[in-house]
Structures are given as C-alpha cells and as structure tokens.
Design goal:
With about 290 residues, the chain is α+β, with helices and mostly antiparallel strands. The protein has 5 helices and 15 strands. Bound molecules: fe (ii) ion.
Length: about 290
C-alpha cells in the first residue's frame, strides 16, 4: 500500500444533501484539489477545476461525497440509516482551521466532557473516564471502542435528567467517525451521530454532522440546536490545537490513560500509511556530523 493510497481512493464528504440547492454550482477543495459540483434533474455532477483527473460524486447517508480516484473504495456501512423509523438530519457543516484528523480525535475524546461540555455531556464530580475496550475489526479494518460509559447531565435534546450513558465509538475511515449512544426513548437501540470530515487541505477541514435518531419528541430545529451547541463548545479547543496537523509520533504528545482510543487511532493511521494531515518533527541535523 502506497502512502495515503487509502485517502485518495476514499469518498470524501462535501455537503449535506438538504443544504444543497438544485442547479447551483459549488466550489470546494478535497485533499487540496479544487473541484466544482452541482445537482440538477439529471443527477449529480463533479469535476476538477484544473486538469481532467477523475472526480466521481455520489449521494450516501444524507451527504454528498466525491472521490478523486479511478479506483474508489466501497462505502462503509451504516445499517441504521435504512431503518424506517429513524430520523435523519444534518446538524450543520463547520469549517475549521485544523487537520480533519484532529477533529476526529477530539470527537473520540471523552476526557474533555466534564470540562468542555459541563452541564451537557459531563459535569463534576464525574470526571473519571472508566476503562473501555478498543479493538480493530479484522474484516472491515475499522476501530471500535465499546463499553464506554459516562454520567451525563443532559445527554441529548430529549434527556431531562442525568443518565448513565453508554457509548460505542467507531472510526470507519481516517476522516469518518460515528458514535452510537444510549437512546432515551428506546433503551435497546442506539442513536447514531456521524462526523464526516472533509479534508480541504492538511490544515483546514469541514466537519459535517449527520444525526440518525429515534427521537420523536423534539423538532428538527431542537435536535440541530442541541448538536450545534455541543459542537460550538468544542470549537475553541479545536482551533487552538498546536500543531494544526496531527502528530503521529508519541514523543510529541504523551497520551494519558483516558486516551486509549486516541493512541489506537494514531497507531492505526500510521499502520494504514496515512500522512495527509499529520505532522512529523523535521529531522534535526546532527552538528558536526
Ligand atoms: Fe467535545
């Protein structure tokens, strides 16, 4: 496998379908490559602004995706998306001056809940991240963190009292992560939140959020507002990350115990030869050598 081959063959999100107007041309970048795309009665169209390299476009999971390779990877599966009683809605697309890998890593980090999402996803004195299990599915090469638990004052728009929430985190692709979360109205099922990150460049991204929920109480607006409030709380951490790219070598940042998922994610990026959006310390010349 070549460096970044998985990224170049992958599908990357560019817009939530519901946010896209028909017969309008949009310009963006994917992996630093400028593209234009649109939708009309014939369907979706996309092309590179320069050159005649491949640019495929497809609608999947309420989102528009593009692929810059002639040999696209298959899509990852979200079976819940096809369940008829699910509500699927976009919760916005936010442009961030940070590597998309950092945005994914922040999404995976439960340690910041009581501090950054105080009153929502965590609160003191419940600051401890309890041990959880992380593994890589050998069939799909996806990361799963199971048995994640946290006491949350207001876990979702529908939660009116603190509940002991259980989470499954899944990393389906380097820039795609999903969260499966205790569903208040249907305790045997889970709400799903997808964070689909578009790598504009190595240091800029757009985080597209899609909710696949069972909530039948809140309006779309209430669900969106809740998710956007939570995401807004993350903004300051995200845009203040130094360096903007994701350091993969552990000597740059020492992961603490609560960061088991982060360590696995970084190792998995290395094992899959992902370099785009990562940071390596420049080799220092040895004096006098
Ligand atoms: Fe957060």
């Amino acid at each position: 496998m070549q460096k970044d081959e998985l990224l170049w063959r992958d599908w990357h999100p560019v817009m939530i379908v519901a946010d896209m107007a028909a017969n309008q041309s949009y310009q963006t970048t994917v992996l630093g490559v400028p593209i234009v795309y649109s939708r009309d009665t014939q369907g979706y169209h996309a092309r590179r602004v320069q050159g005649d390299g491949p640019c495929a476009i497809k609608e999947r999971y309420a989102t528009v995706w593009v692929c810059l390779s002639q040999d696209p990877l298959d899509f990852f599966a979200i079976p819940e998306f096809d369940e008829p009683d699910r509500r699927v809605l976009g919760a916005g697309s936010i442009r961030l001056h940070v590597s998309g890998l950092r945005a994914v890593e922040n999404f995976l980090d439960m340690g910041h809940f009581p501090y950054v999402h105080d009153g929502y996803l965590g609160s003191e004195p419940y600051t401890e991240v309890l041990p959880y299990d992380v593994d890589i599915d050998p069939q799909t090469n996806e990361i799963y963190a199971r048995n994640c638990r946290f006491v949350q004052p207001r876990a979702s728009a529908i939660a009116d009292k603190p509940i002991d929430v259980s989470y499954i985190y899944r990393v389906a692709r380097p820039y795609v992560t999903l969260l499966y979360k205790t569903c208040v109205p249907a305790p045997d099922r889970q709400d799903v939140i997808g964070l689909f990150v578009q790598p504009l460049s190595e240091e800029w991204c757009v985080a597209h959020t899609v909710m696949i929920y069972l909530d039948d109480v809140n309006s779309d607006e209430e669900l969106r507002k809740f998710q956007q409030t939570v995401f807004g709380q993350d903004l300051m951490i995200l845009i203040n990350q130094v360096p903007k790219r994701m350091p993969l070598e552990t000597r740059h940042e020492v992961p603490v115990r609560a960061d088991a998922m982060s360590s696995v994610y970084r190792r998995w990026l290395r094992d899959n030869k992902i370099a785009y959006g990562t940071y390596s310390e420049p080799e220092t010349a040895t004096a006098g050598a």
